[in-house]
Design brief:
The chain is mainly alpha-helical. The protein has 4 helices and no strands. The radius of gyration is 21 Å and the shape is flat.
């Protein structure tokens, strides 16, 4: 019986979250270029978001408790070997 109540509560939470998101409107995406920002406060908001993301990634890279596999999978940039292969393909 408790399982049905949990499922019903989860469905209610999803419904309320969706209703709340619909009232807020579409989510703003970060602009690709800084020149696309017109408002200074908005530009400052995106700036600090980027700084936080970089800080998280740097601390993750410098964390000695993580293995090598986690370091490689967490970086969004391709490795030097991948970049080299891409350069060779474009020259051919």
């Amino acid at each position: 019986m408790a399982r049905n109540q949990e499922k019903a509560q989860a469905m209610l939470n999803k419904y309320l979250k969706g209703k709340e998101d619909a009232q807020k409107g579409p989510k703003k995406l970060r602009p690709f270029l800084a020149s696309e920002c017109i408002d200074l406060q908005e530009a400052d908001k995106w700036y600090w978001q980027i700084i936080r993301e970089i800080g998280k990634q740097v601390s993750e890279i410098q964390n000695p408790g993580l293995g090598e596999h986690r370091h490689a999978s967490s970086t969004p940039w391709p490795s030097h070997a991948t970049q080299h292969r891409l350069c060779l393909r474009t020259r051919l």
